């Protein structure tokens, strides 16, 4: 029996199972998308569990919802999600940062099919280059997860899953055109041939873009430090593949790969063009020698490559290529009907190749972890601990404890506490002129309480958290990297969804207080840059057999672009209209009008976001949704 099914059925028989069985609800774990009960998530505990069973704050965005949102980028897809804020340097393919619960962009762990992504020089992931068309679904876990994954998981974990094999043969194709000569093409094939499952997909996204920076030449300088009215285009060709072979009813092997390669132009004084490569590949195996034991092994590699140039002429000090080799083993043992013990180990080797002479270009990290999940009556517990040994800075231990109490009518009370850390990046440690090899990891402690309720026609949740981050990496008076900063981040997240007949409404609300708590600093008490204190997303949709019309409003309060809080960015609100018409079961036509009010706003100072823009998409489904394979 498939372990996902085994786990779900086993916990249902134990009395903790499908709280929503028999209902067709809008699952809170999936934001605005419609799901029945039984949605399985993996990222929260590294084991398959029902979304309504998890003790973490989790959002799942599936392929149906991705298509509905008509998003061309992950930044657009994530906009307005609970606990997430985005910074973007002016449109498609431009530098983008994702903050979870007010933590730094470097403090968010990103996985693709279980493989760790990101640049080891910058310490961040190039979200702007990861293709939406290759994604099956995304799981977003908010809150610390270093006790399960190690470094970077202070704010949370984002795991991207590439397309999975369909139960029967399926072919898909889409073509889109929009503002700024934007074009998008995608095609996919997937299916099952006896014990072999396969999925193959390719896509292209190109746009002429718009001038992405209103820079101010030096002096006084600002933004890109140059006046450049040339549109800043972007091109991305991507492919993904997945093969799964069932050796027996108890064992299988699976291979997956994702590759995105292209170029982007931006305004800049020293460079204005970047060629990029994002890639992840893995091979995994699963074996269940008994009905209560599942063994998993995974090996893989990710690559992040970037070559900058000025008017297509390569300049020294502009190449930064990352290779991350990883391996993991894990054993999941069902001790009893209501107890699960997971033990495992991870290996990671980071390597940097650059035309800048870094004194150290590779490091190894080994981690061991244990996760125990249990239920007693209405109570549910999760305890995890991990120990990491890093070749650069030594050893670090982390842990977490989560508790849940289930009441009648689907109401759950949750509480958790966890520690986390982030290892310094290669730039932090070794970049000539300001790196510091003596840096310590950033560390954090987070406490959280939450209420969640799922009913037949909708769901809602409310989470409050307090995160304290120590030894943040900043710069001393000599502009040398140092563990100088402290921060305290408090916040509240609320979200809900409701379906009444053909009408569906959903909302997310957020309040955040991210403060600098570095004693003796002139910035003590200031808000951390790039985060708005108030955010909201509201959506109202009406759906009939062939037509769906949705209106969406995103709201964000003012923020600052600097530590001194001397560079304010105004708040903004945008309104989008999304229409989908299905003339046949195999064909759909979508239209999107974004930023209808033509609002001028910036997420990063000097880098304007797009004004009113449009997109028209035609999709073909070889097997339409709802068809039997």
Can you put this structure into words, describing what you see?
Helix content is about 5%, strand content about 55%. By secondary structure, it is mainly beta. The chain has one domain (about 5-620): Maltoporin, Chain A. The strands form six sheets. It has a 22-stranded antiparallel barrel. A hairpin with a 3-residue loop joins strand 10 and strand 11. The two termini are about 20 Å apart.
Task: Provide a concise account of the structure shown.
With 629 residues, the protein is mainly β. It has helices at residues 3-16, 63-69, 74-78, 146-149, 426-430, and strands at residues 40-41, 49-50, 57-62, 84-88, 96-100, 108-112, 115-116, 135-142, 156-162, 170-178, 182-193, 196-207, 234-246, 251-265, 273-290, 293-310, 313-336, 339-354, 362-376, 379-390, 394-406, 411-422, 442-455, 458-475, 481-500, 503-516, 534-543, 547-556, 559-560, 568-569, 572-584, 587-594, 602-604, 607-608, 613-621.
Outline the fold blueprint:
Layout: H1 3-16, E1 40-41, E2 49-50, E3 57-62, H2 63-69, H3 74-78, E4 84-88, E5 96-100, E6 108-112, E7 115-116, E8 135-142, H4 146-149, E9 156-162, E10 170-178, E11 182-193, E12 196-207, E13 234-246, E14 251-265, E15 273-290, E16 293-310, E17 313-336, E18 339-354, E19 362-376, E20 379-390, E21 394-406, E22 411-422, H5 426-430, E23 442-455, E24 458-475, E25 481-500, E26 503-516, E27 534-543, E28 547-556, E29 559-560, E30 568-569, E31 572-584, E32 587-594, E33 602-604, E34 607-608, E35 613-621
Parallel strand pairs: 6-9
Antiparallel strand pairs: 1-2, 3-8, 4-5, 6-7, 8-9, 10-11, 10-35, 11-12, 12-13, 13-14, 14-15, 15-16, 16-17, 17-18, 18-19, 19-20, 20-21, 21-22, 22-23, 23-24, 24-25, 25-26, 26-27, 27-28, 28-31, 29-30, 31-32, 32-35, 33-34
